[in-house]
Amino acid sequence: MAVTKNWEQGLKVYLPDTNTLTDRNAVAGPSSEGWVAENSLRLIKNADPNTDYNKVFDFWWSAWQTLTVTDNGLVPPPRYHVVGFNADWGKVFTNAASKWNLFTTAEPQKNFEPLVYPPYRNEMTNVWTFDHGADEIAGMVKWFDHWQPIVQGWADSVDSTVSDWKGSAAGALRRYLLTFVTEMAKVRLDLTAPTEYSKAVLEKHDLLHKQIHVLYQGWQTWQGERTSHPIDLLHDAFLEAMNGARLTFGPTPEYTYDYWNKRWNYEHPDVITVVDGTGADVVGGDWIKKVEAEAKKKWLAGIATLDKASNASVGPLDDAYSTLARALGKGVYSPNLTLSPGGGGGTGPGGTGNTGLDDIFKDKDGEGEGEGGGGTEKPDIPKPDIPTTGDKPGGTGDKPVIPPVPSPGTPGTKPPGTPGTKPPTVPKPDIPVPGQPGGNGNGNKVPLLDKNGKPVLDKNKQPIMVPPGSRIGKDGKVYGPDGKPVLGPDKKQIVAPPGAKVGTPNQSQNNNNNNNTNLPGQNTFDQIRLPEGAKILPNGTVVGADGKQLYDANGNPYTLPKGSTIKDGVIYGPDGKPLSRSHQLLTNADNAYNNRTTPRPNTTSQGGGDHNYRTNVPNHSRSPELPGGNGVPKVKPGTPNTVGGLNTLGDRATKFGATAPTTAASTAAAAAAQQARTAAQTSAQAPGQQSPMMPPMGGAGAGAGGAPNQGKDRQRTTWLTEDEDTWGTDTGTVSGVIGR
Q1: Is residue 487 situated within a structural domain?
Q2: Is residue 359 part of a domain?
Q3: DSSP character at residue 75
Q4: What pLDDT shows up at residue 727?
Q5: Shared-domain flag, residues 530 and 488
Q6: How far apart are CA 558 and CA 543, in angstroms?
Q7: Which of 146, 481, 569, 686 could be bridged to 469 by S-S, CB 3.0 to 4.6 A?
Q8: Phi, then psi, of 247 in degrees rounded to 5
Q9: Is 548 a domain residue?
Q10: 590: exposed, middle or buried (C-beta count within 10 Å: 0-12, 13-18, 19+)?
Q11: Among the residues of 469-548, which ranges form H helices?
C-alpha cells in the first residue's frame, strides 16, 4: 500500500529533523491569527457619493435608499450608504513573520531552494549519495574484471606441462588460485545479477531529483489558484454573505404639505442598519467573524492541491526505496577461501605459519619431504591501484573513495566539495523560484526580467543577476542602486533588452540583508524613484529631463516636504533619509479628502400661503381647499427601498492581486445592480449639483468595483506604465511579493 502524507509531512521527508514547519491550522484554524483588522467594519450612513471609498475600505458594499410614493408629492433625492471593512495588513499580509506568510512563501522558498537549485542537497537529502554508492559498486565490479583473468593466468602457469614448478606444493597452490578465481566470479555475479546494484542505486538519483520537483511544482500550482489567496477568499465570502442584503429603516417621518402646490413633501426615514439575506445584522455582533471563518474554510479546502502533490511526490519514492532495500537486503555472496593443509614438495625445512598459503608448503611435522629448498617464496600479487581517501588532502584511512559527479544539467562541472569524474547528467528542470536568484553564487542579487517576465539569460544560458534596486537607463544600460554601472562577468556594463525590468527579491531575503528594511523608505522597493535627469524646481514641482512635470503611478503630481532632494534617482527628505512611497499615497489621500466636492442642498420653492408646514392643519382662511374634508388632507406613507447593492474591492486589495470572481451569476447580478444604481444616480442629481460618484461596472462583476474616476481623462506625462516596476514609482504601500 502506497504511503500517504499531507503537505507538511511530505515536505518534512526531505528536510533535517531540526527544520520546523508552520502548520495549516496556525494560518486558518480555530485559534489562528485574524485576517480582518479589528474594529474596521463600519456602516457609513448618508455617505458622500463623491468620496472614493476604494481608498477607505478593502472590501465594501454600497446601496442607494429611495422612496416610493403613490400620492402626488415631492420625493427627496436618494441617499447613499456604505458598509465596509479592511484586511489586517500589518499583522498578517505584509508581515514577513506571520503564520500565513511563513506557510505560503517564506518556508517553502527557503527549503526548496537548495534542493531544486545547486547544490541540490541539504543536511538530510542529497542526490549525490546515490552517485557515490553506484560508483563504489561499479568500481568493485571493475576490480574483479581486472584481477580475475590475472589470477586465472597464475593458476594456469603453476603445475602445468610447461611450468618449472611441479609437484604436490605446486598443485596445492594451483587449487588455491582456482578457488580464489571461482569465489571472485561468484561475488562479481552477485553484484550484477539478478539485480545490477550499481544501476539500481544510480536510478534513485534521477528519481529523487524528479520527486522533489513534483512537490515543488505542486506548491507553485497552488500559489496560482484562487483558494490560496486570503484576500480573494475574504471578498468571495463577503460577496456570498451580502447576497440579498438590504437596508433597514426607522419610523416614517412626519410629512409636510405644500398647500400652494397641493402636494406632499416627503422625507426619508432614517437607516438603522444593514442586514444580510438571512436578516442578520451586518455591523453587529460577530457577523464579520463568520465571514472570516468562511474564508478560512475555503483556504483550508484549497490545501488539497498541496496534499495531492505531497502524495504524488513521496508515494513513488517510498515504493522505489522499498524495492531497492529488499534487493540490497538479500546481501552479497560471502567468499570462502579456506583449504585443507597438504604435504610439502621439498626436502628442506618448511615455512612457518598456521593458515593460508604457508600451510601448503609444510607437512604435519613442519619438515619438507621433497628435494630442494624448503621455503619457497610466495608470488608477489600487486595491490590494486584504487585511489584512497588517504591519497587526497584531508582524507584518512585506506577506504576507496568514489569519484564525484557534476551538477545536473552542467556537464563537466563539480558540486562543491566533491572533486572527481563526471557521472550521468541529470537535467535541471526550468522551474524558477518566484523572486529568487536561484543559487549559482549570486547571493542577494535579483534577476533581470524580459518584457514577458522571464529571466534574461547570458551566453551561458544562465540568468543575468543584478543588485536589488538597480535601474535601467533609457539606452538599456543597467545602473546599480549606487548609480554606478552594473558589470557582467565579462567586465562590461550589462545592457537590458527592450521592455526589460529588474526582478523583486523575496521578503525574507530583504529582512536578512538589512535589519532596518521594515522602516519606511529604508527598503529599496519602498523608495520613490524617478527617471534620469529628474529634478525639483524651487516651487517644489518635480519635472523630468524634458522639463515636463512628473506624476506618480496614480496620475497625481508629487508633493514633497520642503528641503527634499534627488540623488541617484531616489527622493530624500529634509532629514536625509529616503522618502517612503506611502508618503506620496497619504498625500494623495489628503488632497482627495480636502478637495472633495460637497453637493449643494436640493432647494425647492414651496410657494406662498399662511400655513404651518410641520403640521397637517392648514389655515383655511388663506389656503386653497384641501381633499379629505374639514381641510385635512389624506396621505399614504412612502415606502423606503434598497436599490443597487453592490460589492467592491478596494485599491489596496486589488494592488495585492485580488480579483473578483467572474461567474455567470455574479456577472448578471452586477449588471442588474448597476442598472438600478444608474437610475438612482440620475434621480439623485439636482440642478447645479455634481453627479454623485458611483462605483461603475468596469468589467469587475458582482463585488468588484471599478475605479471611481473611470471615464475622466487625466493627463499623464510620466514614462510608460511597464517601466513603473523598473523605476519603482508605484505608490502602493503593499508589496506584491509576499504570498504571490
Answers
A1: yes
A2: yes
A3: P
A4: 38
A5: no
A6: 9
A7: 481
A8: -85, 150
A9: yes
A10: exposed
A11: 507-513
Vertex 291: Cα angle to 290 and 294 (nearest 5): 85
Residues 645, 643: Cα–Cα separation, whole Å: 6
Helix (H, G, I), strand (E, B) or coil at 174: helix
Q: Which of 567, 580, 483, 598 is nearest to 525 (CA)?
A: 580
Q: In the prediction, which pLDDT does 25 show?
A: 96
- Whole-prediction pTM value? 0.51
C-beta pairs of 560-569 under 8 Å, 24+ apart in sequence: 560/536, 564/536, 565/536, 566/530, 566/534, 566/535, 566/536, 568/481, 568/482, 568/483, 569/471, 569/483, 569/529, 569/530, 569/531, 569/532, 569/534, 569/727
Reported as type and span, the H/E element at residue 556 is none
Same domain, 481 and 542: no
Which of 571, 594, 617 finishes a domain?
Answer: 594
Q: Which of 409, 202, 219, 200 is nearest to 313 (CA)?
A: 219
* Rounded distance between C-alpha atoms, residue 710 and residue 726, angstroms: 26
The pLDDT, as a whole number, for residue 514 is: 44
Note the pLDDT tens digit of each residue in 164-175: 788 888 888 888
Do 447 and 496 lie in one domain? The reply is: yes
Which domain-ending residue is among 560, 579, 594? Answer: 594
- In whole angstroms, give the CA distance from residue 303 to residue 221: 11
Q: Which pLDDT tens digit goes with each residue over 64-79?
A: 999 888 766 778 889 9
Q: Are residues 534 and 589 in the same domain?
A: yes
How many CB atoms sit inside 10 A of residue 114's CB? 15
Contacts of residue 558, defined as CB under 8 A and 6 or more positions apart, other chains included, come to 528, 542, 550, 551, 552, 571, 584
Note the pLDDT of residue 495.
92
Spans of the chain, pLDDT less than 70: 1-2, 71-72, 339-443, 505-525, 588-637, 662-740
DSSP 730: -
Query: All 3 cell numbers of residue 531?
Result: 527617471
φ/ψ of residue 80, rounded to 5? -110, 135
Rounded CA separation 486/713 (Å): 39
Distance CA 387, CA 398 (A): 8
pLDDT at 696: 40
Query: Residue 637: enclosing H or E segment and its boundaries?
Result: none
**Structural domains of the chain, count:** 3
Say if residue 551 is in the same domain as residue 489.
no
570, HSE (Cβ side, Cα atoms, 13 Å): 23
Greatest CA span in the chain, whole angstroms?
168
pLDDT digits (tens, 9 = 90+) for 19-66: 789 999 999 999 999 999 999 999 999 999 999 999 999 999 999 999
d(CA 706, CA 654): 10
Residue 357 DSSP symbol:
G
Quote the domain boundaries for residue 455: 440-504
pLDDT tens-digit profile of 554-576? 778 887 888 888 888 888 888 87
Nearest CA to 626 out of 300, 338, 257, 370 is that of: 257
DSSP character for 111? Answer: H
DSSP element (H, E) containing 34? none
Q: Is residue 456 part of a domain?
A: yes
Helix spans in 545-641 (H): 581-594
- With H, G, I as helix, E, B as strand and everything else as coil, classify residue 197: helix
Tell which phi-psi region holds residue 310, choosing left (phi > 0), alpha (psi between -120 and 50) or beta. alpha
Angle of helix 197-223 versus helix 304-329 axis, rounded to 10: 170
